[in-house]
Amino acid sequence: MGRAPCCDERVALKKGPWTPDEDQKLVAYIQKHGHGSWRHLPEKAGLARCGKSCRLRWTNYLRPDIKRGRFTNEEDQIIIQLHAILGNRWSAIASHLPRRTDNEIKNYWNTHLKKRLSQMGIDPVTHKTSSAGLALAPAWTPLVSTQLTHNTQWHSALAEAEARLSQLSAPPSLLSELQGSATTVPHPSAYFMRSWKTKVEDTLRPAFGTVKLEPHRERLNIDYSTPAPTPNITRLQKPLQDWNTALGIQTTASPFLEKYAAMAMKDIGFPSQTTNSVFQSKPDLLSDMFKEISERPGNHPVFGFVTDDQLGVGLENHFSPTSILQGPDSDSCSGSGDNSDCNFEFLHHDAPGSSYHSFPLIDGEYAAEHAQTSASMSVDIPESFWQAEQHAVSLLEDLKNMDASEGGGLEMIVPLSFDVVSNGGGFDPSQF
DNA sequence: AAATAACTCAACCGCTGTGAA
DNA sequence: GTTCACAGCGGTTGAGTTATT
């Protein structure tokens, strides 16, 4: 039995782009009568269109609850992760992105995300980093790699179940479900967090008051309206497109990440946090500025996060084992939609008592612009701070050693992108 | 300024699943 | 059990737009 044509081919029906008048007719009819039978709708609505065409126009474009416009970082992440789990099941993916249509997501994937992954050396089908890839390894890559592929069916079932639930009400996050499903996997990030809570917080408390690590996503909601005492915070700006070349970004291939990323992600509140890539800078390509940082005692390479909707061009919140104690009010380039205003801060760690710097960036024009102000924005950091920081470093060393047998390395701390937030919303060196 | 290439995304095509008759 | 209409889905197209030469 052949399939019957969806529309009567004897009648000349219009195809192609819809006119405003047609849109108006369709909207008016549906608002008044509902769509009912799509097959019969065109005639009733006075449209020389196939019912199927009307349905598509309505569901993909005219429906009042459709969100249009640029996809957010968070949406990007969700799409990529769900695609890794669900494949090209666009409607299932769309069910987790409120007000986005499957068609829009499909288009966005095909025109943006797929390309972006390829450019980063990641197979957009398998979501695995290709052997030749020397580009950024996104933080969402691990989530979809080894651990998840072992549980694909389970995850897929979860996703489907939740997709169904989402038809009825606002669902809990699929990803939180996924993460929850992996709780049997032990992971060093938990160890780190425990260590932080029991040791580092106490150490810092006398100097900072209550100091806690904030998941990255929460920082976005932190109220910085209380101005921090000046001149302790330096906010520098950088044309972000220079960062990749300046830093010589290289892939961080980490067995640890492969194994534990999903759990680590849970710690930082994934998927709401916007950090989505991690890299390890290649020391011999670093600028002098970053060499200084990476060659400091402990010899820790510089780690950082890349974020934003133009993956790979934004740099956010560098951190290394010693820079995790970055002062509060460190800035973010996420959420603004304008990456050109990404700010950047770093703790300098040459010696106890040294200064808190925001480093001028590599761009010559920029450096010149800020050469005068940067000198005046240093503040003295007392010994106690560096002691606390050293304490944190030692904990991280423990962490590193603990996982050496599992093929891990210092990369393991990568998902732990936290900020130190002290009471009052400001980093006040006078409190020392 | 013009030609061309690249990109975007609305719309279409054809298939599958579902449920009613 | 079969037929059929219909909704929904994913793949693909191509007109329009934007970027590049």
From TrEMBL:
PANTHER family the UniProt entry points to: MYB FAMILY TRANSCRIPTION FACTOR, OS08G0486300 PROTEIN
Residue ranges occupied by any HTH myb-type domain in the UniProt entry: 10-62, 63-117
A GO term from the CC aspect: nucleus
A molecular-function term among this protein's GO annotations: transcription cis-regulatory region binding
Stretch forming the signal peptide: none
Keywords: DNA-binding, Nucleus, Repeat, Transcription, Transcription regulation
Protein name: Uncharacterized protein
Top-rank taxon, per record: Eukaryota
Domain (Myb-like) ranges: 10-62, 63-113
Subcellular location(s) of the protein: Nucleus
Broad class of the protein's primary localization: nucleus
One GO biological process term: response to other organism
InterPro entries recorded: Homeodomain-like_sf, Myb_dom, Myb_TF_plants, SANT/Myb
Pfam families: Myb_DNA-binding
